[in-house]
Every structure is written in structure tokens, then in C-alpha cells.
Amino acid sequence: MVSCLCCSVATFYFIVHSGRSTPLQALQLLGWWPIGLPEIGKSFLLTTLLFMGPLFEMGIAEGRWRNWVRGKTLVQTLRSWTGWRNYVAGPITEEITFRSIIIVINLMAKMSPGRIVFLTPLYFGIAHINHFYETKLAQPDTPLLPVLVRSLFQFTYTTIFGWYATFLYLRTGSLLAVMLVHSLCNYCGLPRLWGRVETSIPIESTLIRAAKFDEDENIFGRVDEATGIGWSVAYYILLFAGVGLFYYQFWPLTESSKALVSFSSKMH
């Protein structure tokens, strides 16, 4: 975090002195000011729509809602180094680096909004390829192909998330909004796209957990109880309904007077 802060200060200095901007304008470009509480709320709501299915499975089918309401899940998660890394340190440092700093440099270089959205997240995706080396180092006997496939898969979904986070950042001008969205996405993982809802397994597949989080699955406990078919039907209805709502609210919920750039209805 210290290195991120130093980079932010250096970028702030560069914007003010080389970009001929006022300190307040520099803070706005970096996403630090104004905080934008409405933008934070709308961005979080939009992302929640996308994860309606997974949140239903975790909260209702697995019964985690009680711990959510009591704040127990938050406390338990932040007590572990893994939880702190995945939901606090990771989102903060990565969004400062790959959104706040990199995007503002490209804005000053007069890059088009569409190119910023689709090209700058490649840095974010490439930064996660190091897990290939880490896996081979920790598990030298693991065949090369599965590790390579997992690394490419990780590069793909981190890049896709980067597209979304970059779009949110440009549309809302709020760094805190993309940090919170990043934490939520880390918590939810990738949605279940097949299979029956069961309370005995977490929403993320074993592959996703191993590739991204390596979390202790006992943080929330496990219940070996199968659910009725109705739970699975409800899950998939909510999953696809959420995707539909996300699609229709994608532009309205990201509309903001604090936007860093102006998009047309379709990006070029």
C-alpha cells in the first residue's frame, strides 16, 4: 500500500505540473475527490444485480444471511490474512494502480474512452499471470498443461473484470466505487452456470477458488445437506433475471455528472 501511495503522489505531481491542472482537478482525475456517495451506491447496486443468483445461494440456500446481518462474516473474514488480502488490500492496491494511475496517464495521452476501457485492463490481466510461476514453484510435479490452462483462464476473467471496472471508473469518477465493486466480485467469485444448488459446497467452483483465492473454506463452515430442486430453479431464475437487469441498467446506473469522459450510447 505504501508503494501505491507513493505512486499516487508522484502521479498527482505529474498531473499538476506537466498536465497544467489544478490540485483539485488532479484529485478528480485520480478518483479521490469528490467521493461520490450516489455513484458508489449505484455501482454497488448494479454489480449486485449481476450476482443475484450467487448471493441467493450463499445468503438464502446456505443460510449465510444471518451472519451477514450480524456482521459476523465481515469480522471473521477480516481476521484472516487471506480475507484481508482478497477483500481489502487487494482491491485497494490493484484499483489504485490499474485504474487510478494507469487510466489518468492514458487520459492525458488523449486516448479514446473505448480504447482505455478495452486496452488498459490487459495490464491487470497480465499482472495475474505470475500465479503460473507460483503454482509451478509450489507444486513442481503438476503437469504443465493444467497449470497453463488455469493461468489463461485467470487472465481472461481478470481482464473481463478490468473492462467493467474501467468503465465504472470512467463513468463515475469514483475510485472508492470500483474498490468496493472489486471486493464484492472477489467475494462472490464466478457464478454457478451448471449443476444443482447444494449447501454443502461454496458458490465458487474448486477451480476458481484454487486459481484466485486459495481460501480456507472453513471460514464460513460447511453444511452437508442437499437442497430441493426448487432452490436450483430459483437460483437460475435469479441468475438470468439479474443478468437481464444488469444489461438494462448498465448505462442508467453508471450515469454521473462526475464522469471523467463522455461516452456515446455505443463505444467506438
Automatic annotation (TrEMBL):
Main location group: endoplasmic reticulum
Catalysed conversion reaction: Hydrolyzes the peptide bond -P2-(S-farnesyl or geranylgeranyl)C-P1'-P2'-P3'-COOH where P1' and P2' are amino acids with aliphatic sidechains and P3' is any C-terminal residue
Keyword Coiled coil set for record: no
InterPro entries (alphabetical): Rce1, Rce1/LyrA-like_dom
EC numbers: 3.4.26.1
Residues annotated as signal peptide: none
GO cellular component: endoplasmic reticulum membrane
Tagged with keyword Coiled coil: no
Transmembrane intervals: 116-133, 153-170, 229-250
GO molecular function per UniProt: metalloendopeptidase activity
Keywords: Endoplasmic reticulum, Hydrolase, Membrane, Protease, Transmembrane, Transmembrane helix
Domain CAAX prenyl protease 2/Lysostaphin resistance protein A-like residue range list: 81-187
Localization per Swiss-Prot or TrEMBL: Endoplasmic reticulum membrane
Membrane topology designation: Multi-pass membrane protein
GO biological process: CAAX-box protein processing
Family listed: Belongs to the peptidase U48 family.
The protein, known as: intramembrane prenyl-peptidase Rce1
